[in-house]
């Protein structure tokens, strides 16, 4: 049976792609951010995941505002990146696993999640840059299953619903008929707002409380409505929903092996956590 070996949650910001392209990992602006991934590299060498279930939000590359599924799952044999207009290089294609994707889809639909299934799917910076942070040589040693949660166009799924999605993903993986070692990777947040009167908004106190809650009280953020989350974390900070689903997939108890928090990366308070489930 397949096994979830850990969860990693991280911010995703297009500027990271530019920093990678220019080799700025040691630059004083970037070093505190990139250094946060060194313990993750060491952990990945030991943990050797076979498959990554990658929870993220598409920002207009695969889905545009005319068609916006609440939850969608990739079922392709390969996923490609494309130019989003940020001026950053695209990354090599990712290998999918359609058989596992369909097992996940069947479980989730069986648990009454109404999904959009994507046999073709382009993956944007929220997918590619966290992968490049985990595996800087971009020679991806894993198969991937993309899971998209709409955090772009109102109405968004509630925090409670995203928690339940994560729980269902955890149950689905436990039933997979393979021996795969599965990493859940959730990308987005933490607090940031790119537009409107509050552009540049950051809430460090909330972010740190939220990161603490991932271990001590993991359903803490499910008390908030979408509007409250936007007030607390910013219009794009609501991407933290991906962290909640990731955490839920790990089960009742989890330990944090590593965390990093650094302000700012571009307009974003960047957060990083490495979590392991406790049986
Ligand atoms: C930024 C952050 C994001 O999450 C994103 O998707 C795009 C841009 C930023 O801080 O610049
Ligand atoms: Fe984003």
Secondary structure: elements and pairs:
Elements: E1 3-10, H1 14-22, H2 31-34, H3 38-47, E2 51-56, E3 71-74, E4 78-79, E5 94-96, H4 98-110, E6 116-118, H5 125-134, E7 143-149, H6 159-174, E8 181-187, H7 204-216, H8 226-233, H9 241-249, E9 253-265, E10 268-278
Parallel strand pairs: 1-8, 2-7, 2-8, 3-6, 5-7
Antiparallel strand pairs: 1-10, 3-7, 4-5, 9-10
Helix pairs in contact: 4-6, 6-9
The protein binds 3,4-dihydroxybenzoic acid (DHB) and fe (iii) ion.
Residues 12-15, 59, 192, 194, 236, 266-268 line the site of 3,4-dihydroxybenzoic acid.
As a percent range, the share of helical residues equals: 25-40%
By CATH, the superfamily comes out as: LigB-like
Distance between the termini: 15 Å
Instruction: Indicate the CATH class.
Output: Alpha Beta
């Amino acid at each position: 049976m397949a096994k979830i070996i850990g969860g990693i949650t991280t911010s995703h910001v297009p500027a990271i792609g530019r920093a990678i392209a220019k080799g700025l990992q040691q630059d004083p602006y970037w070093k505190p951010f990139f250094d946060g991934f060194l313990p993750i590299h060491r952990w990945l060498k030991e943990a050797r995941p076979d498959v990554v279930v990658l929870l993220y939000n598409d920002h207009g590359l695969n889905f545009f505002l005319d068609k916006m599924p609440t939850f969608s799952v990739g079922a392709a044999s390969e996923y490609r990146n494309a130019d989003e207009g940020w001026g950053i290089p695209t990354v090599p294609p990712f290998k999918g696993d359609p058989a596992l994707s369909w097992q996940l889809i069947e479980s989730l639909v069986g648990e009454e999640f109404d999904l959009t299934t994507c046999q073709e799917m382009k993956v944007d910076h929220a997918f590619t840059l966290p992968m490049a942070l985990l595996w800087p040589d971009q020679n991806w040693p894993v198969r991937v299953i993309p899971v998209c949660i709409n955090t772009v166009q109102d109405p968004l799924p509630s925090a409670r619903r995203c928690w339940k999605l994560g729980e269902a993903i955890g149950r689905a993986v436990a039933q997979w008929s393979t021996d795969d070692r599965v990493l859940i990777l959730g990308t987005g947040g933490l607090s940031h707002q790119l537009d409107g009167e509050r552009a540049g908004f950051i809430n460090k106190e909330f972010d740190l409380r939220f990161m603490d809650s991932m271990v001590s009280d993991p359903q803490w953020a499910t008390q908030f409505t979408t509007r409250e989350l936007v007030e607390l974390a910013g219009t794009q900070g609501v991407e933290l929903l991906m962290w909640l689903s990731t955490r839920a997939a790990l089960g009742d108890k989890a330990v944090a092996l590593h965390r990093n928090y650094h302000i700012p990366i571009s307009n974003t308070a960047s957060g990083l956590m490495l979590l392991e489930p406790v049986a």
